[in-house]
Amino acid sequence: MSSYCLLRQGDTLPTVAVLQKLLNRANASVETERLTTTMRAINPPRPAIPSTRSRSTTRAMERPTNAFELPQRTGTTKAIKHVIAPLVVDGAFGSRTAAAVRAFQGARGLHPDGEVAGEEWRRLMHLDVLPLVDCIDVFDEHLYEQQARTIVESGGHPVMIGGMSNGLFQAAESLSSARLIFLLRFIGHGCPGVQGVSIGKGGWYEYRPGRKRPIAHIFGEQNSKFHGKNAPSVGRLKLKRIFGPYSCVELHGCHVAAGALGHHFVCEMAIALDVPVTAAIRSQRSALRFDGPTFTAFPRRQTLKDWSATLPDFVPISVP
């Protein structure tokens, strides 16, 4: 498991569509509670009239009263009419999505900056489980020292790829027991049409509580990567079985989706895995989000809007 992605206004990604679904559920629960409170204020329960044999109380009322009567033009009436319209689930983090995020944050005592990070994801998911997995190339010192550390400090537990003769098979084996993954991220070297999985030699040190010395994991030369030639056969790694209705893949290598070669590679990956695949066009430094423009490919010639429309609604619950 890893730390959740950082999203902000301007992002156009499959993960934004999932966010919009969660925001719609959260806002619906808030409006239901608000409407219930308003209705009670307008039409409070009437005290029970004690039964008596008096003729005056058994006589029919001169003026029939409706069970529910709206007051004439009051602030409470306006409150009923104020209902937050649900977001259009299209994967685009625009001004309305940002406003919905700020409203969600403000209602729950979070800093209303309009950005979605770990705490917002945890609150929005509530009882739902949307697993996120990071696979990091341990042979790159910068990746290990910077990206992996950022993810760990954010509460994540990335999968360190390295130590087997084929890093692709190691990634598949490490994920074999996972199911219904929300987001699978590969963090490693890249170039147009290539995403590194485990490239180089060396290793990493594992620090465990109670041990004075770290455990060394040092390995020989490896050169495992996704590229245009092996992308169509990625399905043989049996990664498709770990995905669910909200699943997507992100390739965080530098320039992976740049140019026609990069676009073709990302499209082949999306077809092979049968989920949306997003990759960076420019250099990457951040571990939790893309730096700069991206390219996303979808299976079955879908667009982001088409794929977003297929997402099922989350089970209605009250989101704290």
Give a verbal description of the structure.
With 320 residues, the chain is α/β, with parallel strands linked by helices. 32% of the residues lie in helices and 19% in strands. The protein contains nine helices and nine strands. The chain has helices spanning 14-42, 55-58, 75-81, 95-107, 118-125, 141-153, 167-174, 259-273, 304-309, and strands at 132-137, 159-161, 181-187, 190-191, 194-206, 215-227, 243-251, 277-280, 294-297. The protein has a six-stranded mixed beta sheet, sandwiched between helices. Strands 4-5-6 form a three-stranded antiparallel beta sheet. Helix 1 (14-42) packs across helix 4 (95-107). 37% of the residues are buried.
Would you spell out the secondary-structure blueprint of this structure?
Elements: H1 14-42, H2 55-58, H3 75-81, H4 95-107, H5 118-125, E1 132-137, H6 141-153, E2 159-161, H7 167-174, E3 181-187, E4 190-191, E5 194-206, E6 215-227, E7 243-251, H8 259-273, E8 277-280, E9 294-297, H9 304-309
Parallel strand pairs: 1-2, 1-3, 3-7, 7-8
Antiparallel strand pairs: 4-5, 5-6, 8-9
Helix pairs in contact: 1-3, 1-4
SS content category = alpha/beta
Mean model confidence by pLDDT: 77
H-E order: HHHHHEHEHEEEEEHEEH
Radius of gyration: 26 Å
Helix content: 25-40%
Strand order in space, largest sheet: 2-1-3-7-8-9
Please work out how many helical segments DSSP would assign.
Answer: 9
Query: What's the total count of β strands?
Result: 9
